[in-house]
Amino acid sequence: MIKISVRDVTSQGMDIDQTIPKEGIGLSDEEIDLRSPIHVKAHLERVDNCIIADTKIEADFGFACARCLGDVFLGQEFEYHFDFEVAAGVEYIDLGEEIRQEMILANPARILCKEDCKGICPKCGANLNIEQCKCT
Ligand SMILES: [Zn+2]
Ligand SMILES: [Zn+2]
């Protein structure tokens, strides 16, 4: 949870800059493969009954290489724009929950372990980065 007091967000805006473990916003290993804490930067502004949050997150994401399925991790940056409607009496908003949902949806682009990854032999399944198989 990234709890933000509605009262602190004025029309001048406020900034947050913090690093949180993925558990801090309720992400589990099954949901996402992260290899680092999440760096969250956000600028929040009050506009009428809304809080607008321009948010940037940075973290190291783990992937399976699209060709050889080898383990890769890569620093990635995502920008999100959130609108929170603030009903009368609401004291806090949770930026963390919004980030959690976006991060689960984020479909990583095709990632390769290296530019010239040779992949896996479609016949015998050998990892061609490591060995040369006998198939033709
Ligand atoms: Zn690969
Ligand atoms: Zn082969």
What key attributes describe this structure?
mainly beta, 4-stranded antiparallel beta sheet, 6 strands
Structure description:
With about 140 residues, this protein is mainly β. It has one domain (about 5-105). Helix content is about 10%, strand content about 40%. It has one helix spanning about 95-105, and strands at about 5, 15-20, 40-45, 50-65, 70-85, 90-95. The strands form two sheets. It has a four-stranded antiparallel β-sheet with strand order 2-3-4-5. The protein has a two-stranded antiparallel ribbon with strand order 1-6. Bound molecules: zinc ion (2 copies). One zinc ion (ZN) binds near residues 121, 123, 124, 126 and 135.
